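Q: Sequence in, structure out?
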Amino acid sequence: MLGAIAGDIIGSVYEHHNIKIKNFPLFSSKSKFTDDTVMTVAVADSILNNREYIDTVKEYFRRY
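A: Exactly. Output:
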């Protein structure tokens, strides 16, 4: 899960851009988590706390 979140943050500045370079900075001042991280955390919360999936996702996205 931490790898998925780190990947989301690292890739956030390149989202929606077709980047083919392999040498790039991992983090910048523009790096941030996206809705992908919000969904990942919501699903984990739902599973770990035996909560209804749809209710948990709605709660997280309202706060996002």
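Residues 2-63 form one domain.
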